Amino acid sequence: MTEQPVFLSNDVVARPLSYDDLIPRLEEVLGKFSRSDSSDVVQPVRSVIPIKNHSGFLGMMPAYIAHEDTLCMKMVAFYRREENLNLPSTQATVLLFNPEYGNVTVVMDGTDITHKRTAAVSAISAKLLMPAQSDVLCILGCGHQAFSHYEIFTQLFSFKEVRVWSRRLETAERFAAGVPGPVKVFSSAKEAVHGADIIVTVTTSSEPVLFGEWVKPGAHVAAVGACRPDWRELDDVLMRDAVIYVDSRDGAAVESGDIILSGADVFAELGEVLNGTRPALRNKTTVFKSLGMGIQDAVAAKLVFDKWKSSQ
Ligand SMILES: NC(=O)c1ccc[n+]([C@@H]2O[C@H](COP(=O)([O-])OP(=O)(O)OC[C@H]3O[C@@H](n4cnc5c(N)ncnc54)[C@H](O)[C@@H]3O)[C@@H](O)[C@H]2O)c1
Ligand SMILES: O=C(O)[C@@H]1CCCCN1
């Protein structure tokens, strides 16, 4: 009980965390979260305080998963990085507790967990909601999340074409040079999106970067950025015309500018689709608005720690 916490640095965390392990665990916990009769999973909406002097925010993300007795807290700082590209836009630390005593047992770098669990949840949305015949993947934004999304989407699905766009052309070109497969770089978001079957938005923009009139009917959008009530990645037309899925209705109602400011109705949580209580309307244009959840970090951190322990 009085032992010092173990510290796991990002390279130690990154090694054992595979998408094959992560996806079924995430599907299970998202399903449990969305069952109204389940008290197995406890996760409040993240509490966020502004870091006024630095255009940033600090989010606290506690979660408890009773059946496996995992008590976890992620602390994540995120910033608007319009000018200074040398500073990170997201920094995360994950704590695992001994649930019986309440002491911290593990402190881990949350970088890889945040990249991979977010991409894995977007991939789950795509599995459920993208058109049955999906040939063209388009990624808007070319930072860390773009890399993890590229990695899992190209692992899980077969696309004929992968396209990218970012605010700065050189960022998109660097991305294309840094991934193992062929990628088409576009200097215009509108052209990149034209005809795409699945579009991933992973920018730090606070204004729309994706407009409904560009989106092919029936396409699926995984919208990962814009996690403040006054930030947008998607315009009102897209939010009005698409069927909207979220990770958490409560989180979306408080944090998602795309939902709050457009007044769009949420059709379902991803967990409800996984549970079969709401349908996956694959034939319609769909948006999965991702905000990130503490339970996602909890299952990822538990996986990492269990694997690390068994390797000692
Ligand atoms: N939903 C979740 O669970 C979750 C988890 C982690 C991060 N995020 C969010 O995902 C987004 C991307 O995170 P990241 O770690 O890849 O960030 P990053 O800083 O590594 O990359 C951001 C990318 O957005 C581009 N960009 C910035 N401003 C832009 C603008 N105005 N228009 C178009 N492109 C612009 C940058 O050029 C860069 O390519 C952030 O908004 C972050 O908060 C969401
Ligand atoms: O759930 C998360 O980890 C992210 C961090 C950055 C802001 C949005 N949500």
| Main β-sheet description | 8 strands, parallel
CA-to-CA gap between the ends?
20 Å
List ligands, each type once.
nicotinamide-adenine-dinucleotide, (2S)-piperidine-2-carboxylic acid
Count of alpha/pi helices: 11
> What CATH architecture of the largest domain would you give?
3-Layer(aba) Sandwich
- The proportion of strand residues reads 15-25%
Number of strands: 15
Mean pLDDT: 96
Sum up the overall morphology in one term. Answer: globular
InterPro entries: NAD(P)-bd_dom_sf (IPR036291), ODC_Mu_crystall (IPR003462), ODC_N (IPR023401)
GO cellular component, one term: cytoplasm
Enzyme class: oxidoreductase
Family: Belongs to the ornithine cyclodeaminase/mu-crystallin family.
